Amino acid sequence: MFQKQIIMRRVLYSLTPIWALSVWLYGPRVVVLTAVSLALGVLTEYLYEKRRNGKVSEAVLVTATLFALSLPPAAPAWIAAVGIVFAVFTAKMIYGGFGRNIYNPAIAGRLFVYISFATVLGRSFTPAGNFGLGAGTLLGRPEVLSSATPLAVWRSGGTVPVLNLLTGLRDGSIGESSVLLILAAAVYLIWTKTASWRIIVSEVAAGGALALALHFAGVKAALPPASLLGGSFLFVAVFMGTDPVSAPKKPASHWIYGALIGITAIVIRTFSAFPEGTSFAVFVGNTFASMIDDFVAGRMNARKARAEAKAAAVPAGASPQGPGDAPAAGTGKEAAK
Amino acid sequence: MSGKAGKILKDNLWTNNPIFIQILGICSTLAVTNSVRNTLIMTVGVSLATAFSSLTLSAMQAAIPRKVRMIVQVLVISFYVILIDIVLRAYLPDVSKQLGPYVGLIITNCIIMGRAEAFAAANKPFLSFWDGLTSGLGYMAVLVSIAVVREVLGFGSLLGFRVMPQGFEPWTIMIMAPSAFFLVAFVMWWAKTVQAKAAVKAAAAKAGPKPAPAKA
């Protein structure tokens, strides 16, 4: 029934430790949300593919897992159901299925529920640890809620211990918990050439530089530098931005694409009414992905044409070299800018 | 005559629907469809404005110089739209307030201008009236069905009456314009799929006798 996709399997492997840790942090709720999301995601794609005798892509497993991991731990199961069906159907199958979608389906589903059910999801954060016992109940509505997600703490002027950010013992969405596990996954994905290191590096570098600049420039709304380890900034950089289908294709475009996502994420996180901006940032990045590719291709063609013109001009004669060189150097400088 | 009127009706409601085939009047589709009541009043307004301006323009077509016909069309259309606006303000002030500038913007609704140019300029007055009215109905059919989905999911109500159970959580995105974008897209997709299938079937029926025995 599944079409074998080794790249998608590697992403699933890299997500396993993060998922296992989240089960310890939030208990059976995580299992239910992941199960609902996987089952309905696969079902949606299966029903659609059956009509044209296609196979279900393994990418849908990644989409469903990432979507479940992006929810707050006590999110109601029906919200996961609505979100994943919307994600797979509207953001993927309608465009023609795997490989043809413009937007990352997991992000589309997440934004759909995030905008629709903002208040419910806002009330779905529970204290982390001990298989979710801190919430009072293991399933259903939690008795104890947490408003102390790291970003909220920083916003109200508090501090979050960096060690907790590294180990993942802090409140927040299911999958964004442990910085160490996310870094390990990033190393694995880059090592196996599954994810583009250019996207991850440029995203973190550009976003980090902007966050630091805002902080040290004394902007009032800016969060402290440690905020780069909180929220879903790293999780999104490693798993969402690097989706090979919705990212641009050329290696050179990866730099621009990653930087665009990183900067947008920090701008939205700092200056908007939304607590977190990473999903919107990936959406913006996806929107411009093909345009970036186009721009890079145009640049590369122009450079190639210039080089060829130069190569043709040199053996022809020595005298026209001087004036022929000058404009080329000028445009070269322009490109460097 | 009745055959022609029937064909116009079918054209405007289905085969040449202003929304999902001509893709006209999309701006108001996005703006006013989050409540069924407002949508109904808006689309009735558009239908009447289209019908009467088509009637008037068709009746006076011989008197309109070709070069200034657009100006004349806009004048006639705005006359009817202002009438609608005044009636709404007098009898349904709250709806008028909610619709805001969109009543006045009926003047620039492409459907009205489109019918005036494409139909009323070359047909008899009463047929033009019928064409304008049915075009408005085609617009209404699509907008009302979108509004039903948006109001039920976005507010949990239908025409202001609560239809969803107590614990229902409203889908905020349905109240916002983005939802209209993908709902309109769904309607277009559905209609074009059905029409394409019908076309294939009709073509197969025409060429019927040949491939049928081959299959058997």
Give an overview of the whole structure.
The complex is a heterodimer of chains A (337) and B (216). Chain A is mainly α. Chain A has one domain. Helices cover 65% and strands 1% of the residues of chain A. Chain A is built from 14 helices and 2 strands, in the order βααβαααααααααααα. Chain A has helices at 6-26, 28-50, 59-69, 77-93, 105-116, 118-122, 150-155, 162-167, 179-191, 197-216, 233-240, 251-271, 278-316, 321-336, and strands spanning 2-3, 56-57. Chain A is globular. The model of chain A is unreliable at 320-337 (pLDDT under 50). Chain B contains 10 helices and 2 strands; from the N terminus they run H-H-H-H-H-H-H-E-E-H-H-H. The interface between A and B is small, with 8 and 8 residues.
Give the structure's gist in a few sentences:
Chain A has 337 residues and is mostly helical. Chain A is 65% helix and 1% strand.
User: How many strands of chain A?
Assistant: 2
Please provide the ordered H/E string of secondary-structure elements of chain A: EHHEHHHHHHHHHHHH
The major pleated sheet of chain A works out as: 2 strands, parallel
Query: Average pLDDT of chain B, to the nearest integer?
Result: 88
What structural category characterises the helix and strand content of chain B? mainly alpha
Instruction: Give the averaged pLDDT of chain A, no decimals.
Output: 86
Low-confidence stretches of chain B: 212-216
How would you write the strand order of the largest sheet of chain A? 1-2
- How big is the Rg of chain A? 23 Å
Based on CA inertia axes, which overall geometry of chain A fits? Answer: globular
Our count of domains of chain A comes out at 1
Reading the helices and strands of chain B in chain order gives: HHHHHHHEEHHH
Oligomer state equals: heterodimer
Distance between the termini of chain B: 44 Å
Beta-strand share of residues of chain A: under 5%
